[in-house]
Amino acid sequence: MKRVGAYLLRLAAGGSEQLSSGTELAAWLGKRRGWVVSAWGSRQPSASHGRHVTGRRSRDVASGAAAADESAGPSLMAVLGAMAGVMRGLGTSGLGPFTFGLQALGRKHEEQGVQDHPPGTVPLLPGGPVALAEAERLLEAMELAHGAYRKSAAALAATTCLRVQHVRVWRPQSGRLQPGYYVAVDHPGRRVVWGIRGTLAFSDLITDLAMAAHPLPLRGAPDAAAHWGMTHAAHWLLQQEAQHVAALLRSLRGPGGSAPYRLELVGHSLGGSVAALMAAMLREGLVEVGRSEDVPPHLVSCIAFAPPAVMSPCLAAACRPYVTSVVLNHDVVPRFNAHSLALLQQELQGVDWFAELQRTVMEHTMMR
Is 0.85 surpassed by the pTM of this model? Predict the structure, then answer.
């Protein structure tokens, strides 16, 4: 797994040399640092690159490019630093010991009767119209989240409740700490939908693996933190579109007593966690861009499908009133983070992977 980690970092830097150790990797990055930054910078999409704006949202391309330069975000070296922890967590013993160690650990847990999840009861929805309405709401949100993976705004509209003429921003290209997204208006639902795409390109994988903790202090919880890469991705998205979304919500305010349009953030996997962090930033005023833009906090909500675990417990608890996470059974992604990886590595040190390999070979030999 050490070679896998070095290979990922080498690909992230755009290099072609073969690296065989962490020492060689560090020396190579130090030697090529200036080249790495300039090479990555040349590949970064501007705010207008791949960003299709429709309806009343046609804007000056030059000003968009200038804004992109101002919000380029952390350097590649900072991203690699945030990835270092997960690379260490993968271990240095190699793929074989890791694979058979997992198999031995699973057998050990089965023999000891270890539960796959904490004990407790699963709250069930009441029957009747309430359960049906909630199921329909989640299914509709799932289609909207999956729509971020579509190849065009027309394809998004063809598979969701949205209409193509109401898709205000369509930006499928992603970059380092910059996931693809769209912004659309759902008039029947009286909402603005902001969909964030999950992992699709290699640049998204870089965002996933930048798993260091990033301080995100809450009022009354100064030690709150979140996933480094996804926090920066959420902040970048707000820098890009919060002002435009706020203006859109203002323009959709109806006369007198009509209910205002709300902002619903949706996403799957990486997109789900980034959407949840964006909702927290807007609702709790965690970053300057969230406080400065006129997005009414009480109108912001999020539905995330299979989101990775990216928040400290106090931050996750604060999100409970306005973030809904949907997790399928024992899906590993929502349970995977730097802390769980460290615990897994610690558990693997207590099993005999070589004995498990011998046992597997014996079983296959006897089956023949």
Answer: no
